[in-house]
Design a protein that fits this description.
It is built from seven helices and six strands. It has 382 residues and is of the alpha+beta class. The strands form two sheets. The chain has a four-stranded antiparallel beta sheet.
């Protein structure tokens, strides 16, 4: 809408909107217009733009799903680290108690004349060493607990820290692997791969939109006008406003050569497509390599766990033998304590390997079945 005061000298023609008025004196004029435009054809650029935006939205959704899997896996890794730190701290405290008891027993043996000061010094050195290791491990334990709190987004009071209550749940059986050198059914639904595929589709639609810029744009346009005038006052001019004219028709716009902007936009879109295709290939190859590595690590973790279990069994058997020899006076306190310490170390190593085995199994599950990974793990925890 528009309101103006016009002053004309002589018989000059005055244009108000699309209306020509004639006046020899000053007057007040009003003008209003209602316009509309409906696009009929734009070379397909708008439709392609919508499809590109939809593909980018789907890619962002897949990125979010992939981020959830990664973040949950990070929490699981930090929880496993806290588990191992707690178990090692408990083991070190137990070893410290063993060597403190050995030091006391050695002192009693010295008083009876069957041990030397060297034996006492060695026992004291071992107990001090275990005490120092326990203090260092306590610092590590605090660090791992803090790292887990950060991963899950907890802000704890200064004197509180997280504790791992249970061991990691055993992972389910891995899905059956059916793969060729170029495809892999287990990775086809991976969010990272689907996001890369959607970005390729978005880049292709951007090329279609850029090509549409070379084509004409056709719009159906309409316009309706109102105008009024009065020599006395503005309010009278407003009151005098009435329908004046209307128009409608087709508006055709066509850019002319050299199409500099259009060519640049097309070349940019083509470059984005090449980059998206390269990223898709890199993502696919990276997932294939990660799958092979995950399966190899899982198999290796299983073998390491079997070895650790066997070593723990042998250490327990040796401890039983030394306990029996000690009861019959055929083994001294030092040898028996070392057998106990060895059994504790083997038990700790078996716990580490079992935790690693379960963690690697869940990591493989997250890679091979990411869409069901969180659901399966949640059911295991429940």
């Amino acid at each position: 809408m528009q309101f103006s005061r016009y002053v004309n000298e002589g018989k000059q023609a005055t244009l108000i909107g699309s209306t020509v008025v004639q006046s020899e004196s000053a007057f007040y004029g009003t003008y209003a217009a209602l316009s509309s435009s409906l696009n009929l054809y734009s070379g397909g650029r708008q439709e392609a733009g919508y499809r590109a935006a939809d593909s980018e939205l789907k890619a962002a959704h897949e990125d979010y799903e992939n981020l959830k899997v990664k973040q949950f896996s990070k929490v699981l890794e930090d929880y496993a680290a806290l588990l191992k730190a707690q178990e090692e701290y408990r083991s070190l405290l137990y070893l410290e108690e063993l060597y403190v008891s050995l030091e006391e027993a050695t002192q009693k043996a010295y008083q009876r004349g069957i041990a030397s000061r060297l034996d006492i010094g060695n026992a004291r050195l071992q107990s001090g060493k275990r005490h120092q290791q326990a203090l260092q491990q306590l610092t590590t334990l605090e660090s791992k607990a803090g790292q887990l709190a950060v991963s899950i987004g907890l802000e704890l009071p200064e004197k509180e820290r997280l504790q791992a209550a249970d061991s990691l749940p055993p992972p389910p059986a891995l899905p059956e692997i059916k793969a060729t050198p170029s495809t892999d059914e287990t990775l086809a639904e991976h969010p990272a791969l689907r996001a890369a595929q959607q970005r390729v589709e978005a880049a292709r639609n951007k090329i279609s939109a850029a090509r549409g810029m070379f084509l004409p744009k056709v719009d159906l346009v309409g316009n309706y006008n109102w105008s009024g005038r009065d020599n006395a006052s503005a309010s009278n001019a407003v009151d005098a406003t009435k329908a004046n004219s209307y128009s409608f028709g087709l508006l055709v716009q066509q850019h002319l050569p050299p199409f500099t902007g259009e060519t640049t936009a097309l070349q940019t879109a083509q470059a984005e497509l090449r980059e998206a295709e390269a990223q898709l290939k890199e993502t696919r190859l990276g997932l294939l390599n990660a799958k092979k590595q995950a399966l190899a690590e899982f198999a290796q973790a299983r073998r390491s766990l079997d070895i650790a279990r066997q070593a723990e069994k042998e250490a327990d058997e040796a401890l039983m033998l030394h306990r029996a020899r000690r009861q019959h006076g055929r083994s001294d306190e030092q040898t028996y304590t070392e057998a106990q310490a060895n059994a504790v170390q083997r038990r700790l190593e078996r716990f580490f390997q079992e935790t690693n085995y379960r963690l690697i199994g869940w990591a493989a599950q997250a890679l091979l079945s990411p869409r069901h990974y969180l659901e399966i793990l949640r059911n295991k925890l429940q």
